[in-house]
Fold each of these.
Amino acid sequence: MGKISMVMFDLSGTTVHDDTGVRDCLYQAAQEFNLKTTPEEILFHMGTNKIHLYQFLIAREMGKKIDIEDFEKIKDPETYDLAKKVFDRYQEIMLDYYRKQCKEVPGASDTFRWCHEHGIKVATDTGFHRVITDAIMEGLGWVRDGLVDLAVDVEHIPGQIGRPAPFMIFYAMTHLNIQSVHEVIKIGDTPADMLEGRNAGCRGVIGVLSGPRPVTDWGRYWHTHVIPSVADLPELIEKEFF
């Protein structure tokens, strides 16, 4: 196989510090609309399109069951309007959070620089929508400073189809002219990240321990490697992928 040409990095919990702040914002909005859930359940389903997460919770209260692997396969117009209202409130809470505190996971910027020094494109993807992604990128300056080549979110994809579908990875490959998934690594800290990488056929699907989700949540989904944090990625690539 050829060299690695692109790494698709998750944001919250992988490259952006998260000590359950995202979970708490999602949960607060759900509570305000009296949706039955727990912080632990929210945490497990993070990394997906947030509107679809709320649709899942609403559908369940209506007696429907949707598994995380099917989040982007099932369209449920019946739950959309309420889910969008909850989501809009969540975005208000989340934006306020990131405007007050947005910091990288230690070593993230250094890893991006290392990738560029070794001819590897740096892309990010996320379950966030555009306004949150933009707030993160503005706060950290990664796109402005040339550390991130492309920041992808669910709004780049027709129908806003997010993880675990592989389309954000394919979008980045198209725009960065990466022509083989065998040259791509996906790295993240959620079940949705692992499923996305598997569904895309990435050469490496790597889980990190730096996020708020326990490895028991995402570790049972197919992956190739586990590392403590994104700061350890250069060493792993040199050892396993060069």
Note: The chain is about 45% helix and 10% strand.
Amino acid sequence: YYSNLRNDIEDSEVKTKTVLFNFDPNKIELEDWQRLGLSAKQAQSILNYRSKGGKFYKPEDLQKMYTISPQKYEALRPYIQIEAKNTNYDKPQYADKPDYVKKTAVMIELNGADTLTMDEIKGVGAAFARRIVKYRERLGGFYKKEQLLEVYGLDSAKYEEIKTQVKIDANNIKKININTATFDDLKNHPYLKFKQINAIIQYRKQHGNYNSIDDLKKVLILSPENIQNITPYLSF
């Protein structure tokens, strides 16, 4: 079909005398194509292709035009000269990616840092920064670095990577007055279970205010480990 159509186009008009010369198929106009031996319809077909964004990146691309016969292409091929810049036509231009910025060692105070500051710690990304801050809020603050191992997903290898980049100011710990605290005040603390909270409140109701940690030791449901863990968070 295309062969017959090409022949019809070639025969539809009288060609001017053929003059072969070096040319760039991305630039020459209708008259130049006719000088190369193409009919006006053949030339117009190529111009239409270019007007729709078509480009010739290499000489062989001209062979894809169905209006040009293999014989005509072979005659023109030695004269095709496409400028090198045309090989970049229509290639998408992407903004340069920002260079990766390697984190340098820092010293971050765990109880005062927000998630953005926490993210500056080498080895701590945005996800871990959020987890650390969330767990800190439940605790009321960290009193020792090892508590980072209690953060979900933070294993010993990660801890070893970040422990030298953090410090702790115990003055920033939010303390709970054990003599006025309600169940709701204590229920979110990770070191206390509901039964233990109820026992603390009931003992206070029966025996009065706690004066020291020694009084808290009288709540039998609390183990020595429980007492040790919660002591930094209590006031009397």
Note: The two ends are 98 Å apart (CA to CA).
Amino acid sequence: MDKQIIEEVRLNRFIAMCGICSRRKADSLIQQGLVRVNKKVIVALGHKVRLTDCVEVDGQTIYTETNQYLLLNKPKGYITTMSDEKNRSTVMELINNACQERLFPVGRLDKETTGLLLFTNDGILAKKLMHPKYKVKKTYNVFLNKNLSKPHFLKLIQGLHLDDGFIRADKLNYLNDSKRNLQIEIHVGKNRIVRRIFSFLGYEVQKLDRCMYSILTKKKLPLGKWRMLTSKELNFFKTL
């Protein structure tokens, strides 16, 4: 069963794996009759191909990509999306010339949040990293508009119920005596989760920085810069 899954994939997925375009755009190319498999035009959206098949898009033979893994130290002012209809700055601009492959962000950081953001074209690993089952930890430095009270500190450790479910901090520490600056570790990857849990308790997050993503840190990675993952880091993630 596993062998069949690896060897045979939907045609639109294969096109996306080659970095040509998204699956949705690939469906459009297929319907336009611009895709050939082993010299035969394919218009059926559910058609499956083997990785050894010869696939052509608009007359050009395409090939599957090498998996790439990139870590960005995201600055403020960039949204996490592949493109933006409002022409706002996106994180893709920061990694534009990193490699030939088409990379995708693993999860997201909002426009005002800084810190570590992982990119890859390895869909299998990306799904694992985002799934709560694998408990991939994310650590954030948080600066609040006022001191976090002791009862609320304990509440975050014990957990609270938001509209989309239960959430608690895996670790929580004050970073200085003011008690406005904290470090929180969580493994849940829900949208804007850190800002929402503090907002639920009546606080405003004024600064938010993801300083660790699993074993990855910002060491020797300045704001706005990126690097490829090392073989040691990749080996760790492959064990998930």
Note: The mean pLDDT is 91.
Amino acid sequence: MSKKAILVSATIVIFGVAAAVLMFTGGRGKGVGLVYVPDEAVRHREKGEFLLNRRLHTTDRTQKAELLTEAIEEFKKALAVKPDFETVHNLLGHAYMERGQWETALTHLNRALELRADYPAALYNRGRLYAQVSLGKRDKELLRKAIADYQAALSSELSVGFTGDILKALADAQNQADDLAGAIETLKRYLRVAPHAPDAALIERKIRGLMLMQKGTAPPEGEIYKEAVQAPKQDS
């Protein structure tokens, strides 16, 4: 075999190995090695996600309930094939939250985080669960847990795709915990991260309302947005 042929063969092998690594580790947290997921488990997960997506696009309450039940069954089938499928544990946690089955949801979210501690979607969902359960109770301990989970989710490099959602949820939890200053700064951070978001004007009004609650005074409309957007973006 010529030197050129040997070089080409070696290059193909190297790229093949790199592609396999990306396929098995893409979207996973730091320190997670190669993980094999059986095709059957992937099919059930994908079907469950498809059903959840369909559920978002119907207003019929009966159909929503049926689609949620079908999605849960698909996720259970995926776990029967691969019990340590952290993505599916997170999806099941979300699905059971939609049903209001908080304890079952928490069990699956905790399991997802046992399998991958820096999983931002599971941290975000568990934070939402804590915040939701605390409503009406004003349970500061649950709110503290929600805030800690949101902050941990934000610290993950994998949260880039939904940083705005996490920041808004964090601000709501801080507001519930009577940390008005924290909520204000978090919403300002949201404006820095997403200055052209469709709800930017609404977020500015929320900030202004929190400032009025905190100090009895607030800058005129437009000034808060300008200040937030022009501030250094080291936290975005």
Note: Residues 3-25 form the longest helix (23 residues).
